[in-house]
């Protein structure tokens, strides 16, 4: 037996017991006649004590131990004279009588501490060491707790977990697929699923009524903080439901997780905000409503004054930043540099200081009188002491830049309280969006999303105005999940494919199995998929999903620990009937 207890469970009640512990050496302190070692395992830390006077040989052996050595120690539990209230085991220590090295360790490439000295790439290369750090381990423990709560809650709500295939058919919509060659079918390929979308719809056709799955999904797309090439969804589908049935069901799941994991009680219904309103008020479709600073339209108030930047712009809007009229020129220059970043894309920033005395100081004083600026202030809800920040330009780009500026001001002014949670549903998305490169419409969500009945006539006259019965759950500016009511009859599904530019042959080749299933009595159905990694990151207070995943990829999609993706042998290529072509510049 390697241990009688873990390193996190002994306390004052165990004094005088003889115990055996095993774990890793966190740190060692040599104080002359005494040596102290902090022993660590998954459950915590326990202090080991070696006394030179009582056992010189044992104490000398303890001093040879390095960081991350795996050891076994036996001894007696004693009450500590200098207790550590920050440690669960801080009232006791082990007076060691026997020590055994189970495995020595090389000196680790970075410190296994909360505030490690290891950079991101180094920690990812030695991820098995990084996972020993308390913070990373706690993230995975949180993930585990959430998965248990999700499964228990949905099971109690009569959902059944069904596994769906990982090797599926490649489809042209959405992000790029990861493809897998088939040795038994030369020249043909599987795809890894971007989601189990068609399978969960088929499960509804099959009569399963309520399905869920915590499932791996794959997308070959450029990465960022909240994206990985493989990620985990909480995938759900229900039959005989309308939009609000789905929202109510998964508001229940959300509230359950808030209570079980964060001990936060949410009793009010989540607000429902139309997509167009979210863009208008916050500049994006995942608004952070923990703070105000909403976007205001002042285009009509700025026109005709000779300032060409505003006169020629299709979008002129601003935000009011409370209490910041004292911002220095340096601070304003920093904000201008921020909006000019390539990833933001604005050409410049106009500011108006509404001074405490009631006067205005602006970067456009040459063109606008104090009376003009007062009208801006009235439209933006500004009062003396506030700062107005205005952007102008092409609508989509400028709206995005203003949204990013609002969020940046929220961060700088510490308005994003991590202990406050503001969930809402964003609803009524456009069904289709126009793509200039391909000169055709694409599905904003996916081609199986049901349009509103009252918008069906717009398919003929103005397809871009057709609204989708789609919805996203947004919490604190993070899109946690999204879904829709699905099309469940062949005629409407074919009409959708027609508007997406599919020929009848293409639609049949790609989705004939689903169209065929609809002929055998498909029920009305709808569902939602939550980004499990994102939800864990939100509850853990992380900006990136990477530390919620045991073995993540870096921003180039590489696993630097096992060095993949990598080449395969000529023999493997031949067996798969493949040839590798060198990339062109």
Count the DSSP helices: 17
- Overall mean pLDDT score? 94
Q: What's the CATH architecture of the largest domain?
A: 2-Layer Sandwich
Widest sheet: strand order?
A: 6-9-10-22-21-20-17-11
Notes on the structure:
By secondary structure, the chain is an alpha+beta fold. The chain folds into three domains: 12-103, OB fold (Dihydrolipoamide Acetyltransferase, E2P), CATH 2.40.50; 138-273 and 423-548, 2-Layer Sandwich (BirA Bifunctional Protein, domain 2); 291-412, GAD-like domain (Gyrase A, domain 2), CATH 3.30.1360.30. 29% of the residues lie in helices and 24% in strands. It has helices spanning 56-63, 120-125, 127-130, 134-156, 197-205, 243-262, 275-282, 299-302, 308-311, 329-339, 370-380, 395-412, 458-461, 490-499, 504-518, 532-540, 570-575; strands at 18-30, 34-41, 44-51, 70-79, 92-103, 160-161, 179-181, 189-191, 210-218, 230-239, 272-274, 296-297, 315-321, 350-354, 360-362, 387-393, 423-427, 432-435, 440-443, 470-475, 478-485, 525-531. An eight-stranded mixed β-sheet has the order 6-9-10-22-21-20-17-11, sandwiched between helices. It has a five-stranded mixed barrel with strand order 1-2-3-5-4. The longest helix has 23 residues, at 134-156. The radius of gyration is 30 Å and the shape is globular.
